[in-house]
Protein backbone atom coordinates (compact mmCIF):
# COMPACT_ATOMS: atom_id res chain seq x y z
CA UNK A 1 0.00 0.00 0.00
CA UNK A 2 1.22 3.51 -0.73
CA UNK A 3 1.84 6.20 1.86
CA UNK A 4 -1.45 7.99 2.66
CA UNK A 5 0.18 10.97 4.42
CA UNK A 6 1.76 12.75 1.45
CA UNK A 7 2.03 16.51 2.27
CA UNK A 8 -0.47 18.56 0.31
CA UNK A 9 -2.55 15.53 -0.69
CA UNK A 10 -6.09 16.38 -1.83
CA UNK A 11 -8.95 13.94 -2.32
CA UNK A 12 -11.41 14.08 -5.19
CA UNK A 13 -14.82 12.50 -4.71
CA UNK A 14 -17.30 11.09 -7.22
CA UNK A 15 -20.66 9.60 -6.15
CA UNK A 16 -23.02 7.70 -8.44
CA UNK A 17 -26.13 5.56 -8.52
CA UNK A 18 -26.90 2.49 -10.57
CA UNK A 19 -27.14 2.77 -14.34
CA UNK A 20 -25.24 6.04 -14.95
CA UNK A 21 -23.88 5.92 -18.51
CA UNK A 22 -20.37 7.19 -19.29
CA UNK A 23 -18.17 7.04 -22.39
CA UNK A 24 -14.42 6.89 -21.71
CA UNK A 25 -11.23 6.09 -23.54
CA UNK A 26 -8.95 3.57 -21.90
CA UNK A 27 -5.22 2.98 -21.79
CA UNK A 28 -2.32 1.71 -19.70
CA UNK A 29 1.41 2.63 -19.81
CA UNK A 30 1.93 -0.13 -22.36
CA UNK A 31 -1.40 0.23 -24.18
CA UNK A 32 -2.65 3.61 -25.29
CA UNK A 33 -5.92 2.78 -27.01
CA UNK A 34 -9.08 1.13 -25.76
CA UNK A 35 -7.64 -1.37 -23.27
CA UNK A 36 -9.31 -2.12 -19.96
CA UNK A 37 -7.67 -3.04 -16.66
CA UNK A 38 -9.31 -5.52 -14.30
CA UNK A 39 -8.88 -4.26 -10.75
CA UNK A 40 -8.78 -7.80 -9.34
CA UNK A 41 -5.01 -7.85 -9.72
CA UNK A 42 -4.27 -4.91 -7.40
CA UNK A 43 -7.37 -4.09 -5.36
CA UNK A 44 -8.45 -5.33 -1.93
CA UNK A 45 -11.07 -4.50 0.68
CA UNK A 46 -9.18 -2.28 3.11
CA UNK A 47 -11.78 -1.22 5.67
CA UNK A 48 -15.39 -1.80 6.69
CA UNK A 49 -17.64 0.40 8.84
CA UNK A 50 -20.49 -1.76 10.09
CA UNK A 51 -23.79 -0.15 11.08
CA UNK A 52 -26.98 -1.64 12.51
CA UNK A 53 -28.19 -3.15 9.24
CA UNK A 54 -25.69 -2.15 6.54
CA UNK A 55 -21.98 -1.60 6.02
CA UNK A 56 -19.71 0.85 4.25
CA UNK A 57 -17.03 -1.13 2.37
CA UNK A 58 -13.87 0.60 1.08
CA UNK A 59 -11.57 -0.96 -1.53
CA UNK A 60 -8.12 0.45 -2.34
CA UNK A 61 -6.60 0.35 -5.81
CA UNK A 62 -3.01 1.28 -6.78
CA UNK A 63 -2.77 2.53 -10.34
CA UNK A 64 0.08 2.35 -12.87
CA UNK A 65 1.31 5.62 -14.36
CA UNK A 66 -0.30 6.74 -17.63
CA UNK A 67 -1.01 10.01 -19.38
CA UNK A 68 -4.06 8.47 -21.00
CA UNK A 69 -7.47 7.70 -19.53
CA UNK A 70 -7.50 4.28 -17.91
CA UNK A 71 -10.73 2.33 -17.61
CA UNK A 72 -10.74 0.25 -14.44
CA UNK A 73 -13.23 -2.57 -14.12
CA UNK A 74 -13.98 -3.80 -10.56
CA UNK A 75 -15.90 -7.08 -10.94
CA UNK A 76 -17.59 -9.38 -8.45
CA UNK A 77 -19.26 -6.73 -6.31
CA UNK A 78 -21.94 -8.25 -4.05
CA UNK A 79 -25.56 -8.53 -5.03
CA UNK A 80 -26.48 -6.67 -1.83
CA UNK A 81 -24.82 -3.42 -3.00
CA UNK A 82 -27.23 -0.54 -2.28
CA UNK A 83 -28.22 1.71 -5.16
CA UNK A 84 -26.72 5.19 -5.14
CA UNK A 85 -24.10 4.43 -2.49
CA UNK A 86 -20.92 4.15 -4.59
CA UNK A 87 -18.19 6.81 -4.21
CA UNK A 88 -14.57 7.18 -5.32
CA UNK A 89 -11.77 9.36 -3.94
CA UNK A 90 -8.16 9.71 -5.03
CA UNK A 91 -4.84 11.36 -4.25
CA UNK A 92 -4.07 14.84 -5.62
CA UNK A 93 -2.17 13.49 -8.63
CA UNK A 94 -5.01 11.24 -9.76
CA UNK A 95 -8.37 12.25 -11.21
CA UNK A 96 -11.48 10.04 -11.29
CA UNK A 97 -13.25 11.16 -14.45
CA UNK A 98 -16.34 8.99 -14.00
CA UNK A 99 -17.74 6.05 -12.08
CA UNK A 100 -20.48 3.68 -13.13
CA UNK A 101 -22.12 0.77 -11.29
CA UNK A 102 -23.97 -1.81 -13.36
CA UNK A 103 -25.33 -5.31 -12.83
CA UNK A 104 -22.77 -7.96 -13.70
CA UNK A 105 -23.29 -9.91 -16.87
CA UNK A 106 -25.76 -8.86 -19.55
CA UNK A 107 -28.80 -7.08 -18.18
CA UNK A 108 -31.13 -5.35 -20.62
CA UNK A 109 -32.29 -1.78 -20.13
CA UNK A 110 -35.87 -2.92 -19.54
CA UNK A 111 -34.89 -5.02 -16.53
CA UNK A 112 -32.71 -2.23 -15.12
CA UNK A 113 -35.63 0.18 -15.47
CA UNK A 114 -37.92 -2.26 -13.65
CA UNK A 115 -35.43 -2.63 -10.78
CA UNK A 116 -35.15 1.15 -10.41
CA UNK A 117 -38.95 1.47 -10.51
CA UNK A 118 -39.38 -1.15 -7.80
CA UNK A 119 -36.86 0.67 -5.60
CA UNK A 120 -38.74 3.94 -6.01
CA UNK A 121 -42.06 2.21 -5.29
CA UNK A 122 -40.56 0.63 -2.15
CA UNK A 123 -39.49 4.03 -0.79
CA UNK A 124 -42.93 5.47 -1.52
CA UNK A 125 -44.62 2.57 0.29
CA UNK A 126 -42.33 3.06 3.31
CA UNK A 127 -43.27 6.77 3.44
CA UNK A 128 -46.96 5.84 3.29
CA UNK A 129 -46.45 3.29 6.07
CA UNK A 130 -44.83 5.94 8.29
CA UNK A 131 -47.81 8.25 7.73
CA UNK A 132 -50.28 5.47 8.62
CA UNK A 133 -48.39 4.61 11.80
CA UNK A 134 -48.45 8.28 12.80
CA UNK A 135 -52.22 8.46 12.27
CA UNK A 136 -52.73 5.22 14.21
CA UNK A 137 -50.83 6.68 17.15
CA UNK A 138 -53.03 9.78 17.11
CA UNK A 139 -56.27 7.74 16.97
CA UNK A 140 -55.16 5.56 19.88
CA UNK A 141 -54.27 8.68 21.86
CA UNK A 142 -57.69 10.17 21.09
CA UNK A 143 -59.45 7.00 22.32
CA UNK A 144 -57.46 7.18 25.53
CA UNK A 145 -58.39 10.86 25.91
CA UNK A 146 -62.07 10.00 25.48
CA UNK A 147 -61.78 7.44 28.30
CA UNK A 148 -60.17 10.08 30.51
CA UNK A 149 -63.03 12.47 29.68
CA UNK A 150 -65.57 9.79 30.67
CA UNK A 151 -63.79 9.18 33.98
CA UNK A 152 -63.57 12.90 34.67
CA UNK A 153 -67.24 13.43 33.82
CA UNK A 154 -68.34 10.48 35.97
CA UNK A 155 -66.66 12.09 38.95
CA UNK A 156 -68.50 15.36 38.23
CA UNK A 157 -71.83 13.55 37.88
CA UNK A 158 -71.29 11.83 41.24
CA UNK A 159 -70.45 15.17 42.85
CA UNK A 160 -73.62 16.74 41.39
CA UNK A 161 -75.72 13.80 42.64
CA UNK A 162 -74.29 14.28 46.11
CA UNK A 163 -75.26 17.95 45.95
CA UNK A 164 -78.63 17.30 44.26
CA UNK A 165 -77.64 19.62 41.38
CA UNK A 166 -77.52 17.12 38.53
CA UNK A 167 -78.15 18.64 35.07
CA UNK A 168 -79.85 15.81 33.15
CA UNK A 169 -79.53 17.55 29.77
CA UNK A 170 -75.78 17.99 30.23
CA UNK A 171 -75.34 14.35 31.24
CA UNK A 172 -77.36 13.16 28.23
CA UNK A 173 -75.43 15.43 25.88
CA UNK A 174 -72.12 14.17 27.27
CA UNK A 175 -73.18 10.53 26.97
CA UNK A 176 -74.23 11.00 23.35
CA UNK A 177 -70.96 12.78 22.55
CA UNK A 178 -68.78 10.06 24.08
CA UNK A 179 -70.71 7.25 22.38
CA UNK A 180 -70.52 8.95 18.99
CA UNK A 181 -66.83 9.75 19.43
CA UNK A 182 -66.04 6.17 20.46
CA UNK A 183 -67.89 4.72 17.48
CA UNK A 184 -66.22 7.12 15.05
CA UNK A 185 -62.72 6.57 16.43
CA UNK A 186 -63.21 2.80 16.63
CA UNK A 187 -64.29 2.77 12.95
CA UNK A 188 -61.30 4.92 12.00
CA UNK A 189 -58.98 2.65 13.98
CA UNK A 190 -60.37 -0.48 12.33
CA UNK A 191 -60.09 1.04 8.86
CA UNK A 192 -56.56 2.27 9.47
CA UNK A 193 -55.47 -1.13 10.81
CA UNK A 194 -56.95 -2.80 7.73
CA UNK A 195 -55.16 -0.34 5.43
CA UNK A 196 -51.90 -0.84 7.31
CA UNK A 197 -52.15 -4.61 6.92
CA UNK A 198 -52.86 -4.20 3.19
CA UNK A 199 -49.89 -1.85 2.83
CA UNK A 200 -47.64 -4.39 4.54
CA UNK A 201 -48.65 -6.97 1.95
CA UNK A 202 -47.79 -4.51 -0.84
CA UNK A 203 -44.34 -3.94 0.67
CA UNK A 204 -43.74 -7.70 0.90
CA UNK A 205 -44.88 -8.16 -2.71
CA UNK A 206 -42.57 -5.36 -3.85
CA UNK A 207 -39.50 -6.95 -2.22
CA UNK A 208 -40.52 -10.37 -3.56
CA UNK A 209 -40.68 -9.04 -7.12
CA UNK A 210 -37.38 -7.19 -6.71
CA UNK A 211 -35.71 -10.38 -5.48
CA UNK A 212 -37.22 -12.36 -8.36
CA UNK A 213 -35.74 -9.97 -10.92
CA UNK A 214 -32.36 -9.96 -9.20
CA UNK A 215 -32.29 -13.75 -9.07
CA UNK A 216 -32.46 -13.86 -12.85
CA UNK A 217 -29.29 -11.82 -13.30
CA UNK A 218 -25.69 -12.95 -12.93
CA UNK A 219 -25.07 -14.18 -9.37
CA UNK A 220 -21.84 -12.19 -9.29
CA UNK A 221 -23.96 -9.16 -8.39
CA UNK A 222 -22.55 -5.90 -9.74
CA UNK A 223 -19.43 -4.44 -11.25
CA UNK A 224 -17.89 -0.95 -11.27
CA UNK A 225 -16.34 0.91 -14.17
CA UNK A 226 -14.02 3.84 -13.34
CA UNK A 227 -12.37 6.20 -15.82
CA UNK A 228 -9.14 7.45 -14.22
CA UNK A 229 -6.22 9.69 -15.20
CA UNK A 230 -3.01 9.15 -13.18
CA UNK A 231 0.15 10.44 -14.93
CA UNK A 232 2.51 9.45 -12.09
CA UNK A 233 0.51 6.52 -10.76
CA UNK A 234 -1.42 6.76 -7.53
CA UNK A 235 -4.30 5.38 -5.59
CA UNK A 236 -8.08 5.35 -5.73
CA UNK A 237 -10.29 4.49 -2.80
CA UNK A 238 -13.60 3.03 -4.01
CA UNK A 239 -16.45 2.70 -1.50
CA UNK A 240 -20.02 1.40 -1.46
CA UNK A 241 -22.74 0.35 0.97
CA UNK A 242 -24.03 -3.24 1.23
CA UNK A 243 -27.05 -4.74 2.96
CA UNK A 244 -27.68 -8.14 4.59
CA UNK A 245 -25.16 -7.24 7.28
CA UNK A 246 -25.29 -5.73 10.75
CA UNK A 247 -24.21 -6.06 14.34
CA UNK A 248 -25.56 -5.86 17.85
CA UNK A 249 -23.76 -5.44 21.17
CA UNK A 250 -23.52 -8.03 23.94
CA UNK A 251 -21.92 -7.88 27.36
CA UNK A 252 -20.51 -10.29 29.90
CA UNK A 253 -20.09 -9.04 33.48
CA UNK A 254 -18.10 -11.19 35.92
CA UNK A 255 -18.18 -10.39 39.63
CA UNK A 256 -15.63 -11.98 41.94
CA UNK A 257 -15.96 -11.95 45.72
CA UNK A 258 -13.05 -12.94 47.95
CA UNK A 259 -13.66 -13.09 51.67
CA UNK A 260 -14.25 -9.68 53.21
CA UNK A 261 -12.56 -7.83 50.35
CA UNK A 262 -14.61 -5.61 48.09
CA UNK A 263 -15.87 -7.47 45.00
CA UNK A 264 -14.16 -6.94 41.64
CA UNK A 265 -15.98 -6.62 38.33
CA UNK A 266 -14.86 -7.21 34.74
CA UNK A 267 -17.04 -6.03 31.87
CA UNK A 268 -16.49 -7.67 28.46
CA UNK A 269 -18.04 -5.89 25.46
CA UNK A 270 -18.51 -7.96 22.28
CA UNK A 271 -20.07 -7.39 18.89
CA UNK A 272 -22.24 -10.11 17.37
CA UNK A 273 -21.91 -9.69 13.61
CA UNK A 274 -24.30 -10.77 10.89
CA UNK A 275 -22.45 -10.91 7.55
CA UNK A 276 -24.29 -12.25 4.49
CA UNK A 277 -23.25 -9.55 2.03
CA UNK A 278 -22.04 -12.07 -0.55
CA UNK A 279 -18.37 -11.06 -0.32
CA UNK A 280 -15.71 -12.06 2.20
CA UNK A 281 -13.94 -9.37 4.22
CA UNK A 282 -10.38 -10.60 4.60
CA UNK A 283 -7.71 -8.75 6.60
CA UNK A 284 -9.83 -5.61 6.99
CA UNK A 285 -9.82 -2.74 9.47
CA UNK A 286 -13.26 -3.05 11.11
CA UNK A 287 -15.20 -0.26 12.84
CA UNK A 288 -18.54 -0.93 14.55
CA UNK A 289 -20.87 2.09 14.61
CA UNK A 290 -24.16 2.70 16.44
CA UNK A 291 -25.18 5.66 14.27
CA UNK A 292 -27.52 5.37 11.30
CA UNK A 293 -26.32 6.64 7.93
CA UNK A 294 -29.84 8.00 7.31
CA UNK A 295 -30.15 9.64 10.75
CA UNK A 296 -32.05 12.95 10.74
CA UNK A 297 -29.93 15.91 11.93
CA UNK A 298 -32.66 18.59 11.89
CA UNK A 299 -33.62 20.04 15.29
CA UNK A 300 -37.27 19.32 16.31
CA UNK A 301 -39.37 22.50 16.14
CA UNK A 302 -41.76 23.29 19.01
CA UNK A 303 -44.97 24.81 17.63
CA UNK A 304 -47.39 27.06 19.62
CA UNK A 305 -50.20 25.37 21.58
CA UNK A 306 -53.49 27.21 21.06
CA UNK A 307 -56.37 26.56 23.47
CA UNK A 308 -59.93 27.78 23.97
CA UNK A 309 -62.91 27.07 26.21
CA UNK A 310 -65.56 24.56 25.23
CA UNK A 311 -68.60 22.85 26.70
CA UNK A 312 -68.45 19.07 26.95
CA UNK A 313 -70.97 18.68 24.11
CA UNK A 314 -68.74 20.82 21.85
CA UNK A 315 -65.45 19.21 22.82
CA UNK A 316 -65.08 17.10 19.71
CA UNK A 317 -62.59 19.52 18.16
CA UNK A 318 -60.39 19.10 21.22
CA UNK A 319 -60.75 15.36 21.61
CA UNK A 320 -59.61 14.14 18.26
CA UNK A 321 -61.66 15.20 15.25
CA UNK A 322 -59.27 17.89 14.09
CA UNK A 323 -56.14 16.06 15.19
CA UNK A 324 -56.84 13.08 12.97
CA UNK A 325 -58.25 14.93 9.98
CA UNK A 326 -56.06 15.58 6.96
CA UNK A 327 -52.55 14.46 6.24
CA UNK A 328 -49.33 15.40 7.99
CA UNK A 329 -47.75 15.64 4.56
CA UNK A 330 -49.77 18.59 3.18
CA UNK A 331 -48.27 21.90 2.01
CA UNK A 332 -44.66 20.78 2.43
CA UNK A 333 -42.12 22.94 0.52
CA UNK A 334 -40.50 21.05 -2.34
CA UNK A 335 -37.05 21.44 -0.79
CA UNK A 336 -38.07 20.14 2.65
CA UNK A 337 -37.75 16.54 3.85
CA UNK A 338 -41.28 15.09 4.41
CA UNK A 339 -39.92 12.83 7.17
CA UNK A 340 -38.96 15.91 9.23
CA UNK A 341 -42.50 17.30 8.95
CA UNK A 342 -43.99 13.93 9.87
CA UNK A 343 -41.75 13.66 12.92
CA UNK A 344 -42.26 17.19 14.24
CA UNK A 345 -46.03 17.35 13.69
CA UNK A 346 -46.56 13.95 15.31
CA UNK A 347 -44.42 14.85 18.32
CA UNK A 348 -46.14 18.22 18.75
CA UNK A 349 -49.57 16.57 18.51
CA UNK A 350 -48.72 13.97 21.15
CA UNK A 351 -47.17 16.59 23.43
CA UNK A 352 -50.20 18.86 22.99
CA UNK A 353 -52.57 16.08 24.10
CA UNK A 354 -50.42 15.48 27.18
CA UNK A 355 -50.43 19.17 28.07
CA UNK A 356 -54.21 19.46 27.66
CA UNK A 357 -54.60 16.48 29.98
CA UNK A 358 -52.38 18.25 32.54
CA UNK A 359 -54.64 21.33 32.43
CA UNK A 360 -57.84 19.29 32.91
CA UNK A 361 -56.72 16.67 35.44
CA UNK A 362 -56.46 16.98 39.20
CA UNK A 363 -53.03 17.97 40.48
CA UNK A 364 -50.70 15.01 40.93
CA UNK A 365 -47.18 13.87 40.19
CA UNK A 366 -46.66 13.98 36.42
CA UNK A 367 -43.74 11.75 35.39
CA UNK A 368 -43.21 11.58 31.68
CA UNK A 369 -40.47 11.72 29.07
CA UNK A 370 -40.39 12.25 25.31
CA UNK A 371 -41.02 9.37 22.92
CA UNK A 372 -37.35 9.15 21.87
CA UNK A 373 -36.10 8.49 25.42
CA UNK A 374 -35.73 4.79 24.62
CA UNK A 375 -32.98 5.44 22.08
CA UNK A 376 -29.28 4.98 22.70
CA UNK A 377 -27.50 7.45 24.96
CA UNK A 378 -25.22 8.56 22.09
CA UNK A 379 -23.83 7.54 18.73
CA UNK A 380 -20.57 5.66 19.22
CA UNK A 381 -17.90 4.06 17.05
CA UNK A 382 -15.77 1.13 18.16
CA UNK A 383 -12.61 0.33 16.14
CA UNK A 384 -11.76 -3.37 16.50
CA UNK A 385 -8.10 -3.83 17.41
CA UNK A 386 -5.94 -5.26 14.64
CA UNK A 387 -7.15 -6.51 11.27
CA UNK A 388 -9.78 -9.21 11.03
CA UNK A 389 -11.37 -11.77 8.67
CA UNK A 390 -15.14 -11.97 8.34
CA UNK A 391 -16.49 -14.36 5.73
CA UNK A 392 -19.98 -14.13 4.28
CA UNK A 393 -22.04 -16.83 6.00
CA UNK A 394 -25.48 -17.34 7.60
CA UNK A 395 -24.13 -17.97 11.11
CA UNK A 396 -23.33 -14.97 13.34
CA UNK A 397 -19.70 -14.18 14.20
CA UNK A 398 -18.53 -12.59 17.45
CA UNK A 399 -15.61 -10.17 17.86
CA UNK A 400 -14.19 -8.78 21.10
CA UNK A 401 -14.30 -4.99 21.39
CA UNK A 402 -13.26 -3.97 24.91
CA UNK A 403 -12.63 -5.47 28.37
CA UNK A 404 -12.61 -3.19 31.43
CA UNK A 405 -12.34 -3.40 35.20
CA UNK A 406 -15.11 -1.65 37.14
CA UNK A 407 -15.34 -0.66 40.79
CA UNK A 408 -18.71 -1.01 42.46
CA UNK A 409 -20.72 -2.31 45.37
CA UNK A 410 -22.72 -5.55 45.57
CA UNK A 411 -25.79 -5.65 47.79
CA UNK A 412 -29.18 -7.36 48.09
CA UNK A 413 -32.57 -5.88 47.19
CA UNK A 414 -35.50 -7.14 49.26
CA UNK A 415 -39.03 -6.34 48.06
CA UNK A 416 -41.58 -8.45 50.00
CA UNK A 417 -44.48 -7.15 47.88
CA UNK A 418 -42.95 -8.64 44.72
CA UNK A 419 -40.80 -11.63 45.69
CA UNK A 420 -40.15 -14.08 48.52
CA UNK A 421 -36.40 -13.94 47.79
CA UNK A 422 -33.75 -11.25 47.74
CA UNK A 423 -32.11 -10.23 44.47
CA UNK A 424 -28.44 -9.29 44.20
CA UNK A 425 -27.62 -6.01 42.49
CA UNK A 426 -24.37 -4.17 41.73
CA UNK A 427 -24.09 -0.39 41.57
CA UNK A 428 -21.31 1.28 39.60
CA UNK A 429 -20.34 4.66 38.31
CA UNK A 430 -19.40 4.61 34.63
CA UNK A 431 -15.75 5.70 34.97
CA UNK A 432 -14.69 4.29 31.58
CA UNK A 433 -14.62 7.70 29.92
CA UNK A 434 -17.10 6.65 27.23
CA UNK A 435 -20.82 5.99 26.89
CA UNK A 436 -22.20 2.48 27.13
CA UNK A 437 -24.87 1.55 24.60
CA UNK A 438 -27.76 -0.75 25.47
CA UNK A 439 -27.39 -4.48 24.95
CA UNK A 440 -28.03 -7.93 26.42
CA UNK A 441 -25.78 -8.94 29.31
CA UNK A 442 -24.81 -12.32 30.79
CA UNK A 443 -23.98 -12.07 34.50
CA UNK A 444 -21.55 -14.35 36.36
CA UNK A 445 -20.87 -14.39 40.10
CA UNK A 446 -17.68 -16.20 41.15
CA UNK A 447 -17.60 -17.91 37.71
CA UNK A 448 -21.17 -19.18 38.13
CA UNK A 449 -23.76 -18.06 35.59
CA UNK A 450 -26.58 -16.31 37.46
CA UNK A 451 -28.79 -14.96 34.68
CA UNK A 452 -29.38 -12.60 31.78
CA UNK A 453 -30.39 -8.98 31.83
CA UNK A 454 -30.15 -5.88 29.63
CA UNK A 455 -27.59 -3.14 30.15
CA UNK A 456 -29.33 0.23 29.89
CA UNK A 457 -27.80 3.09 27.86
CA UNK A 458 -25.40 4.76 30.29
CA UNK A 459 -23.55 8.04 29.81
CA UNK A 460 -19.99 8.52 31.03
CA UNK A 461 -20.01 9.20 34.82
CA UNK A 462 -23.66 8.10 35.12
CA UNK A 463 -24.80 5.47 37.64
CA UNK A 464 -25.05 1.93 36.33
CA UNK A 465 -27.11 -0.86 37.94
CA UNK A 466 -26.87 -4.56 37.05
CA UNK A 467 -28.83 -7.43 38.59
CA UNK A 468 -27.08 -10.65 39.63
CA UNK A 469 -30.09 -12.89 40.16
CA UNK A 470 -31.82 -14.36 43.20
CA UNK A 471 -30.18 -15.03 46.53
CA UNK A 472 -32.33 -17.82 47.92
CA UNK A 473 -30.52 -17.74 51.25
CA UNK A 474 -32.27 -14.45 51.92
CA UNK A 475 -36.05 -14.86 52.20
CA UNK A 476 -38.75 -12.38 53.05
CA UNK A 477 -42.47 -11.86 53.64
CA UNK A 478 -44.83 -8.97 54.42
CA UNK A 479 -47.41 -9.01 57.22
CA UNK A 480 -50.29 -6.63 58.01
CA UNK A 481 -50.16 -6.54 61.80
CA UNK A 482 -53.10 -4.24 62.46
CA UNK A 483 -55.70 -2.00 60.82
CA UNK A 484 -57.63 0.39 63.06
CA UNK A 485 -60.33 2.84 61.94
CA UNK A 486 -61.57 5.91 63.81
CA UNK A 487 -64.12 8.58 62.84
CA UNK A 488 -63.04 12.19 63.30
CA UNK A 489 -65.84 14.58 62.41
CA UNK A 490 -66.69 13.89 58.77
CA UNK A 491 -63.48 11.95 58.09
CA UNK A 492 -62.42 8.33 58.57
CA UNK A 493 -58.81 7.71 59.64
CA UNK A 494 -57.21 4.31 59.13
CA UNK A 495 -53.99 3.37 60.97
CA UNK A 496 -52.04 0.51 59.37
CA UNK A 497 -49.05 -1.32 60.82
CA UNK A 498 -46.83 -3.65 58.77
CA UNK A 499 -44.03 -6.07 59.53
CA UNK A 500 -41.38 -6.86 56.91
CA UNK A 501 -39.61 -10.10 57.76
CA UNK A 502 -36.15 -11.01 56.41
CA UNK A 503 -34.57 -14.45 57.04
CA UNK A 504 -30.79 -14.64 56.56
CA UNK A 505 -29.42 -18.19 56.12
CA UNK A 506 -25.89 -16.95 55.41
CA UNK A 507 -23.15 -17.38 58.03
CA UNK A 508 -22.31 -13.67 57.83
CA UNK A 509 -24.17 -10.38 58.01
CA UNK A 510 -25.67 -9.18 54.75
CA UNK A 511 -26.41 -5.60 53.61
CA UNK A 512 -29.86 -5.17 52.06
CA UNK A 513 -32.00 -2.45 50.58
CA UNK A 514 -35.51 -3.14 51.89
CA UNK A 515 -38.33 -1.71 49.75
CA UNK A 516 -42.04 -1.16 50.33
CA UNK A 517 -44.50 1.56 49.32
CA UNK A 518 -47.29 3.78 50.59
CA UNK A 519 -49.98 5.15 48.23
CA UNK A 520 -49.43 8.24 46.10
CA UNK A 521 -52.38 10.65 46.12
CA UNK A 522 -53.50 13.69 44.17
CA UNK A 523 -52.94 17.08 45.75
CA UNK A 524 -56.65 17.89 46.01
CA UNK A 525 -56.76 16.94 49.69
CA UNK A 526 -59.29 14.13 49.22
CA UNK A 527 -56.90 11.62 50.82
CA UNK A 528 -54.10 12.34 53.28
CA UNK A 529 -51.27 9.84 53.73
CA UNK A 530 -48.82 10.22 56.63
CA UNK A 531 -45.84 7.95 57.28
CA UNK A 532 -44.97 7.50 60.95
CA UNK A 533 -42.07 9.66 62.18
CA UNK A 534 -39.95 6.70 63.32
CA UNK A 535 -40.17 5.01 59.91
CA UNK A 536 -39.44 8.32 58.15
CA UNK A 537 -36.27 8.89 60.17
CA UNK A 538 -34.95 5.46 59.20
CA UNK A 539 -35.40 5.94 55.42
CA UNK A 540 -32.30 5.73 53.23
CA UNK A 541 -30.26 8.95 53.07
CA UNK A 542 -29.15 8.18 49.49
CA UNK A 543 -29.58 11.46 47.52
CA UNK A 544 -30.70 9.73 44.32
CA UNK A 545 -33.40 7.80 46.21
CA UNK A 546 -34.59 10.95 48.00
CA UNK A 547 -34.82 12.86 44.72
CA UNK A 548 -36.37 10.27 42.44
CA UNK A 549 -38.26 7.63 44.46
CA UNK A 550 -39.23 9.11 47.80
CA UNK A 551 -41.68 11.67 46.30
CA UNK A 552 -43.58 8.81 44.62
CA UNK A 553 -44.28 6.83 47.79
CA UNK A 554 -41.48 4.27 47.36
CA UNK A 555 -39.94 3.45 50.75
CA UNK A 556 -36.35 2.23 51.12
CA UNK A 557 -34.43 1.32 54.23
CA UNK A 558 -30.71 0.39 54.12
CA UNK A 559 -30.19 -2.37 56.69
CA UNK A 560 -27.63 -4.94 57.78
CA UNK A 561 -29.21 -8.33 58.52
CA UNK A 562 -27.18 -10.29 61.10
CA UNK A 563 -25.91 -13.79 60.26
CA UNK A 564 -28.14 -16.86 60.73
CA UNK A 565 -31.34 -14.97 61.53
CA UNK A 566 -34.25 -17.18 60.48
CA UNK A 567 -37.22 -19.06 61.89
CA UNK A 568 -38.33 -17.66 65.23
CA UNK A 569 -35.20 -15.49 65.24
CA UNK A 570 -35.86 -13.87 61.82
CA UNK A 571 -35.14 -10.18 61.43
CA UNK A 572 -38.28 -8.02 61.77
CA UNK A 573 -38.75 -4.46 60.55
CA UNK A 574 -42.03 -2.74 61.47
CA UNK A 575 -43.50 0.57 60.32
CA UNK A 576 -46.84 2.43 60.39
CA UNK A 577 -48.71 4.95 58.26
CA UNK A 578 -52.21 6.46 58.25
CA UNK A 579 -54.89 7.20 55.62
CA UNK A 580 -57.53 9.88 56.15
CA UNK A 581 -60.48 10.59 53.81
CA UNK A 582 -64.17 11.49 53.80
CA UNK A 583 -66.08 8.82 55.74
CA UNK A 584 -68.59 8.49 52.89
CA UNK A 585 -65.83 7.72 50.37
CA UNK A 586 -63.67 4.65 49.79
CA UNK A 587 -60.21 4.10 48.35
CA UNK A 588 -59.92 3.01 44.70
CA UNK A 589 -57.11 2.88 42.18
CA UNK A 590 -56.45 6.02 40.10
CA UNK A 591 -55.88 4.82 36.51
CA UNK A 592 -53.58 2.33 38.22
CA UNK A 593 -52.49 0.15 35.30
CA UNK A 594 -51.97 3.05 32.89
CA UNK A 595 -49.88 5.05 35.38
CA UNK A 596 -47.86 2.03 36.50
CA UNK A 597 -46.93 1.40 32.88
CA UNK A 598 -45.87 5.04 32.49
CA UNK A 599 -43.77 4.93 35.69
CA UNK A 600 -42.18 1.63 34.65
CA UNK A 601 -41.24 3.05 31.26
CA UNK A 602 -39.89 6.20 32.93
CA UNK A 603 -37.66 4.13 35.19
CA UNK A 604 -36.21 1.97 32.41
CA UNK A 605 -35.88 4.78 29.87
CA UNK A 606 -33.99 7.10 32.16
CA UNK A 607 -31.13 5.12 33.52
CA UNK A 608 -32.11 1.78 35.01
CA UNK A 609 -31.98 1.11 38.74
CA UNK A 610 -32.53 3.95 41.15
CA UNK A 611 -35.53 5.25 39.18
CA UNK A 612 -33.96 7.70 36.86
CA UNK A 613 -30.20 7.19 36.95
CA UNK A 614 -28.63 10.58 36.40
CA UNK A 615 -31.91 12.23 35.40
CA UNK A 616 -34.12 14.16 37.74
CA UNK A 617 -35.67 17.46 38.60
CA UNK A 618 -39.16 18.79 39.10
CA UNK A 619 -40.85 15.49 39.89
CA UNK A 620 -42.08 16.45 43.41
CA UNK A 621 -45.63 15.91 44.61
CA UNK A 622 -47.57 13.43 46.68
CA UNK A 623 -48.90 13.90 50.22
CA UNK A 624 -45.75 12.89 52.09
UniProtKB/TrEMBL annotation:
InterPro entries: CHP02231, DUF4139, DUF4140
Residue span(s) of domain DUF4140: 48-143
Keyword Ligase appears in the UniProt entry: no
Record's keyword terms, sorted: Signal
Keyword Signal part of the UniProt annotation: yes
Domain (DUF4139) ranges: 237-576
Secretion signal span: 1-25
Protein name, entry field: DUF4139 domain-containing protein
